Amino acid sequence: MINPRYMFRIAVFDKTGKFDRFVFFSAISGAPAITCREGCKFSKPEQCTGVLDRHGKMIFEGDILATSNDNPEFDLWGPEDFGYTKIVWNDHALCFGGSEWNFETEYNDPNTDSVYNVQFVSVVGNIHETPELLEEKKKK
Predict the structure, then answer these.
(1) Global pTM?
(2) HEC-encoded secondary structure of 20-80
């Protein structure tokens, strides 16, 4: 079994620029030859973070996350409260992290622990299929 941390994906787009599919591969086996019709385009490879969201879905660079504790008894926040963030490589910290959450509250403090824990995040899309998620909160 290959460690998920060595997995990558490449987004493939048709000639109109519409997202078509992801091609997954490991760094160990190398990038595959991708067959597509004339005019298709590719994204740069996006690396797997090696981390699962709260539903057990692997998180990749370029994924869009929402945060919620989703507990009916103690539901303090929902995805709509904090907006969404995308997973990016942070050159300064040399690790993957979220881009800024699209909200302005006293909770927008990197020293707080609550909504930034992996146990509270869910993959809700990615920058290729659902980029509009990152714009929704900015409009409000």
Answers:
(1) 0.76
(2) EEEEEEECCCCCCCCCCCCCCEECCCEEEEEEECCCCCEEECCEEEEECCCCCCCCCCCHH
